[in-house]
Specification:
The chain is built from seven helices and no strands. The chain is an all-alpha fold. It is globular and about 50 Å long. It binds fe (ii) ion (2 copies). One fe (ii) ion binds next to α6.
C-alpha cells in the first residue's frame, strides 16, 4: 500500500469524520451477530432502556472511530498507523451493528455524534503526540474500559433482549482482542491518574448519550 503523507491523512480523516458525523456508515464486513434470533416482544419500558444502552454503545463506537483516526493521523511508524487503520475498520462493524439494532428498537443514535467525534479525535491525536508506545497503551486501556462497560450493559439489558445481547457480546470479545493486540504491539502501561481521567471522560459521554 502507498505511504500516505500528513496532508493525505488529514483529508482522509476529514472524509471519515464527515461520514461518521453524518452517519454514512460503510456496510459491515462481518455478519450481524443477531441474525437468525427471533425479535422479542419488549415492554415499552424495556425497549426504551435497551435503546438508551445501545445509544451509549453507538456513541462509544463513534468515539472509537475518532480515537483511532486521530492516532493514525499523528502516529509515527507506518506499522502503527496501519494497525490503527485496521482497528478503525473493525470498529466500523460495531458502529453499523449498533446503528441497525437502534433502528430495530425504533430509536435514533445520539444527537451529539459530531461532538463525540471531535472530542475523541483531539484526544486520540494528543495520545499520538506522546509516541507510538504510549499511543498503543492508550488504545489498550480504552479497550479494557470498553470491555468493562459492555459487561455492565450486558448485565443491565432486559432479559428478553437477546438481539442486543448478541451484538454486545460480539463487541465485547472484539474489544478484548483489540486490547491484547495493542499490548502485544508494545503498548505502555498508563499511569493511574491518566486512567482515571479517561474513565471520567467516558462517564460524561455514557451518561449524556443514554438520554440525548
Ligand atoms: Fe468497538
Ligand atoms: Fe475496539
Amino acid at each position: 500500500m502507498r505511504d500516505f503523507d500528513q496532508f493525505d491523512r488529514l483529508i482522509m480523516g476529514l472524509d471519515d469524520a464527515l461520514k461518521t458525523a453524518f452517519r454514512v456508515t460503510a456496510a459491515p464486513d462481518r455478519p450481524y451477530p443477531a441474525e437468525g434470533l427471533d425479535a422479542e416482544a419488549l415492554t415499552e419500558r424495556d425497549r426504551r432502556h435497551a435503546a438508551g444502552l445501545m445509544r451509549v454503545d453507538h456513541a462509544g463506537e463513534v468515539a472509537a472511530q475518532a480515537l483511532y483516526r486521530g492516532q493514525e493521523w499523528i502516529g509515527r511508524s507506518e506499522s502503527v498507523r496501519a494497525a490503527m487503520r485496521r482497528a478503525a475498520a473493525e470498529e466500523n462493524d460495531h458502529l453499523a451493528w449498533c446503528e441497525r439494532r437502534l433502528a430495530e428498537l425504533d430509536a435514533r443514535p445520539s444527537l451529539l455524534g459530531p461532538v463525540w467525534y471531535l472530542g475523541s479525535f483531539c484526544i486520540g491525536s494528543c495520545a499520538g503526540l506522546f509516541g507510538d508506545r504510549w499511543s498503543l497503551g492508550f488504545v489498550a486501556e480504552t479497550e479494557r474500559q470498553v470491555v468493562r462497560h459492555l459487561e455492565s450493559h450486558l448485565r443491565g439489558l432486559p432479559e428478553e433482549d437477546r438481539r442486543s445481547r448478541a451484538v454486545l457480546e460480539q463487541m465485547r470479545d472484539d474489544e478484548g482482542r483489540h486490547a491484547t493486540a495493542a499490548i502485544e504491539s508494545g503498548g505502555e502501561k498508563l499511569p493511574e491518574a491518566v486512567k482515571m481521567l479517561m474513565a471520567l471522560a467516558s462517564r460524561v459521554m455514557t451518561t449524556t448519550a443514554y438520554w440525548v
